[in-house]
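User: Structure tokens for both sequences below?

Assistant:
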Amino acid sequence: MSVSVPFLDLSRHVAPLKHGIKEGLSAVVDSGAFVLGPEVGRLEKTLAEYCGTKFALACASGSEALLMALMALDIKAGDEVIVPSFTFFATASAVARLGATPVFADICPDTLNIDPEDVAKKVTSRTRAMIPVHLFGRAADMIRLQEIAEEHGIVIVEDVAQAIGAEAVMKDGQNRRVGAIGTIGCFSFYPTKNLGTMGDGGALTTDDEVLAHRLSLIRGHGMEPRYYHKLIGINGRLDAFQGLVLNQKFPFLDMWTEERQKIAEQYMMLFESAFEKNPEMREVVQLPLRAGNDRMVWNQFSICVKEAEGKEEKKVRDELKSFLGAKKIGTEIYYPLGLHEQECFQYLNYAPIDLPVTYHVSRSILALPIFPGLTCEEQESVVEGIAEFFG
């Protein structure tokens, strides 16, 4: 018998931490250090050690992290920055906010990450940087992207918003944490992320001491010392309350990641069983690619549906979502449009089908519940519901 399944339930893994968080917040109140301060300093040290970088700077959000990174690199009007179209809006908006031009690249049909070969085609004399997104917790193809960057003198800014702790196998055969591969790594600690605040929060990582200092200046309106402004910055500081929450959660991150990995593998087994019972279902449901030697942290578990019974993929996907919703099974669509199709970017003159993989994936993708605390019974209900729809 099927059970209702929330798309996301943050309370399940936060509940055991409530007492410690409340005590810590009380200590912050008593300290009077509400912005940056010792809690944020502790977070920065932990994050740098976790990622394997020399420096980490906490900031107000993942969106601000991307903006600060591009500001530190002096990206400006006339510059081009290559970004995937299939990603959250902030990846491209940070480029546009500085007057630079986001150049949209397509994605790989198996990993859904930015396609390095399309990136190579989009490089021009105006290209200053690229922002690979490690989408849904999977590292982008950093070996090939680094080759392209080195060939053309392009800076890599990693968007690690969905992938803290993910790893990519590098040329030397060793795994390296995302956020420590490019020149700057940008993190989001939005509540839905694998390591989330109870509000907004973000961070940047780098090995470059000059850039780290510049980022620190940008975060605080360019001040050094107080009320003396060396450059034009922003208010990008992280609140101490959010730093405290992240410090309380950080020791559990790897445990939660392992749980997400087990949930993902359980989905794979359940779907394989469903495919054996209904071989035709295998032809219309594309599962995420397994991680291989990379470390995937599974921020999302997304399937793609194909055309079925003469219906276009978007109609099939939308009907499946409605069918599961009627059974009180939560799903979400990340993302219903590529950024090149968004109204605010129409001035760039992309046609929807100019990025064909992005076009089709955005019309076929459906994210299933995956979060620490999700039960096997709930997963069975999800897969049974999908099997019933295609039965």
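Moving on to the next sequence.
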Amino acid sequence: MAEQKESFFKSSFFIRTRSGIILVLIALALLLTGGNVLLAGLGIISLIGVFELYRVVQIHDKLLGWAGYLIAVVYYVHLYLAPDSRDQQVFLFILALILFLAVYVLSFPAYGSEQVMTAFFGLFYVPVMLSYIYQCRVLEGGAYLVWLVFLCSWGCDTCAYLAGITLGKHKMAPILSPKKSVEGGIGGVLGAVLLGALFGYVFRAQIPFSSPAFSCAVICGIGSVISMIGDLAASAIKRNHDVKDYGTLIPGHGGILDRFDSVIFTAPVIYYTVLYFIG
């Protein structure tokens, strides 16, 4: 009995479940607190995610990588000081590109062009896109609307898994992700739509939409499709570089990018669709 108990606590199911619970609790704490605590938390998560991506192309501990970390920090500091200065944010990334190219040419041939492009791409892929969670949170009704980001991404993932194991027959991306099916994808979208409608109905008094249930259903439907693209895109990068997981920070799940791959894509889409429905 003691050996069985010990083996259970060492099982992948228990480790994955424990990590998932801890991750959800951290997300709850950050989202419920909001404000600068959420912004700082996203900044730390973004730096870890950028590190994981840079490690794939082997620039995580080199000058090019450190330039990327610096720009990511500056971006979050700027978001704290002047969140509405979009033109300045664009200028910041123009300077970032110049900085990356300066490192590229002054240390040539230390880096390949693919590494430089990944360094620049990584800033948009992780820090900028994740920052839209914070930007959703500070909107009118954002304390409730920000949950749509996770509801449509993680909700879609769960519903797609359940639909896939029960109904899945046709492969969605047989080479890239053999376990994902068309039926699972459809189930994921429909599940996210239903979850969104239920969420909008339950919190209709706190959500600034004229038709909360309908609007949240549409938002989650759009977000769920985007979340699947984000999931597959992250998998494609790993496949191209023969990497199983981006990291080991979250036992049983992998790294930050393994767990937040769909959220990264979903956050900005939810932000702009929410703005549309707010009018």
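User: Anything stand out in the second?

Assistant: The chain has a mean pLDDT of 88.
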